[in-house]
User: What shape does this take?
Amino acid sequence: MHDQAGYAAAVRGAGPGDAIVLADGEWRDFEIVFTGVGRAGKPITLKPQTKGGVRITGRSNLRLGGEHLVVSGLVFTDGHTPTRDVIAFRRTKTHLANHSRVTEVVIDRFNNPERFETDFWVMMYGRHNRFDHSYLAGKSNGGVAMAVRLDAPESRQNAHRIDHNYFGHRPILGGNGGETLRIGTSHHSLNESGTLVENNVFERCNGEVEIISNKSGGNVFRGNLFLESRGTLTLRHGNGNVVEGNVFLGNGVPHTGGIRIINKRQTVRGNYLFGLTGRRFGGALVVMNGVPNSPLNRYHQVEDALIEQNTIIDAHHIELAAGADAERSAPPVRSRFRNNLIVNTTPRRSVVAHDDITGIRFEGNVASGVMGLPQVDGIATRPVQLVGGAGGLRQPADATFMEVGAPRDLALLRREDVGPAWYPKPATAPRFGGGQTQRISPGRDTLTAAVEQAGAGGVIELRPGEYIVTKILTLRHPITVRVVPDAASRPLVRFERSALMELAEGGSVELIGLAIDGGLAPDAYGNSAIRTSRHALLGNYSVRVVDVEARNLNTNHSFNFLRVAKHTFAREIEVLDSTFRAVTGDVVALNAEVDDLGLYNAEYVTVAASRFVDIGGAVVNVYRGGTDESTFGPHVTVRGNRFERVGLSKRNAAGAAVLLHGAQWVSVTGNTLVGSRGARIVETVGEPIVAVDGNRWVDTPPLVMTEWP
Ligand code: CA
Assistant: This one.
């Protein structure tokens, strides 16, 4: 077929055994409705002329309705769905697909441009459907990437298979709705789904605290690889699920977690968990406390759990009876914890019981390097030497431990075993450096020209002298702007517009060894040295400022160093070894998410070893409002800085030199504040970790810590 009318006619006439072939090329704004009734062994097939040769772009989607349908080889890219779903295994609420398969399909960054306009990439309905060997990566707007729906009786006990897929990078969403896979919803969670999730790779699926949110019964998660993904496979609702033979490789990456157990008759067996650093509900293995007579959407008590033969190496946190509090007061009962192997190559106190664990029977477990183990029989402390096993996974050298830990033949799924073979999996995201270096001389717009030429990872080196920038520099890649090595003085950058630079989609910036002067900027409200696009940004960006002297950001009031827009999200903001002098607004203002929905503007914020003099607004203003618990951040470090006369402007909205509202990790240490407004930390939800130490408050009110509400 060469056009949409031809396609529609072909679908109308298709019967068992027929194939509809789309001509290679771009099919734009194509809402594909694929219906028909095939037979077992004689499906109706929709495929491209060549695998990967058809690109579905623009406002497009796919709905399947009928029996024995097969879709293969399509690529959804450069667009988004105009409806709620990209691929739905139903045409309408009552016309579902059954015995159908979607295979070797690609959905690559097919995102609504509005960060919090929610949509879903794959929605499974009906029964006996399969989604396999597909590639889903780069979902950056709100909404789970893939879900199995149980809202009709015809979609339950569905025997769906989800296998050999590549679930690639999902950036941090900064709010709820960033799951990669969900099966069921709390409303239908006591129904059986009966879905098999097998041999998939989940790589850097970092959207939120749940990588997989299981909300139904009778599902099996087997042989999957979770690679450096933040969050856990969460058995959130529903009973009788099996989590078996999966591999979780955290490799020490922050917030990587394993398996979280809630509800009845869950089996967690033969899994391998390595280098998982997550804590609390995001730990390597978490067995929750329940709520007595829990409503559907809270926490059912753990009953009859079987946790056996798992290998857990270098996990930071194994949490038993987790979440125990006045509401979650029902500890696990009738549960067994057998033949598990827990090894820390660096000794640590990694196993903690938060409540009564006499309802868990421990048998035959071996621990090594675990300090302060809960006092139970059934966990023997033994020295365990690890060696590389057949599948690349580590196992005890000593054969006496054969019965303990994950099976010795557990294999490591490889990236090349999943997804369509013809579609390349991404290398890691572009970073600072690594691109071409340009060395430039002072002058009018020499820097502007260099930025326009720079590609991803490009480095622009400035010789000493004065650089005048007459246009706002728009950055669409990570770009480094730094002084040439061994320069005698700092290059001075001055800018004539309301901002020196603006970060567009894909843009990040690193500034090293420069002086930045705002004195030429217009006498107008709302200037900034660096700002994000005024519109939502899907990607996560970074700003690094190292050894920079910024001054005279004062041509009007409320002149910020960094200003961000609502629905933009920084992976990291770093200000190190720098000096800021004469700024009328905020230095780092990350308070654009004002709706109290648990959203925020930056995951990691570090301001250290810097000096701030005559700053009208706050040095750091971070705001995350509301009570949502789906995120790990923000993380804020303010360390070893000197503040002089900071925050005194009557327009300082923060009313403080440092305001941190709702941050989850806070460290304010070794700072000296002189003649300044104080610092304020407002704790909201989620047991934030707060360290305040070694600060000096000279002619400055002391730090105030409050709880909200
Ligand atoms: Ca969630």
The mean pLDDT is 95.
